[in-house]
């Protein structure tokens, strides 16, 4: 067992190690994904990806018109 200063230093190091990382990748992902497929509700970054998605996942459907 550690005592005194060693114990305090060990607790501080463990607290820093177990601290949650700042910022969330989920928040950044939500900001980046702006377009969603109305059929399967997958979220995409832009209209070009939506067109590619329709070509591969929904080949019989026409992609929606680009809304600018």
Structure description:
Residues 1-19 have a biased composition (Basic and acidic residues). InterPro entries: MBS1/2-like, SERF-like_N, ZNF706/At2g23090_sf, Znf_C2H2_type. It is found in: Cytoplasm; Nucleus. This protein is rod-shaped. It is built from 3 helices and 2 strands, in the order H-H-E-E-H. It is 49% helix and 6% strand. It starts with a helix and ends in an 11-residue tail after the last helix.
Question: In summary, what is this structure?
Answer:
With 68 residues, the protein is mainly alpha-helical. Helix content is 49%, strand content 6%.
List keywords for this structure.
single chain, 68 residues, mainly alpha, 3 helices, 49% helix
User: Number of helix segments?
Assistant: 3
Span from first to last CA? 66 Å
Q: Could you spell the SSE succession in H and E letters?
A: HHEEH
Number of strands: 2
Main-sheet strand order equals 1-2
Structural class by secondary-structure content: mainly alpha
Largest sheet: 2 strands, antiparallel
Cα-atom Rg, whole angstroms? 24 Å
Tell me roughly what share of residues is in helical segments: 40-55%
**In what range is the share of β-strand residues?**
5-15%
Low-confidence stretches: none
Quote the average pLDDT.
85
What is the global morphology?
rod-shaped
């Amino acid at each position: 067992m550690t005592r005194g200063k060693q114990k305090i230093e060990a607790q501080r190091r463990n607290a820093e190690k177990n601290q949650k990382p700042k910022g969330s990748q989920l928040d950044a992902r939500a900001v980046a994904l702006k377009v969603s497929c109305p059929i399967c509700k997958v979220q995409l970054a832009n209209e070009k990806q939506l067109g590619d998605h329709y070509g591969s996942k929904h080949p019989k459907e026409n992609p929606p018109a680009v809304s600018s």
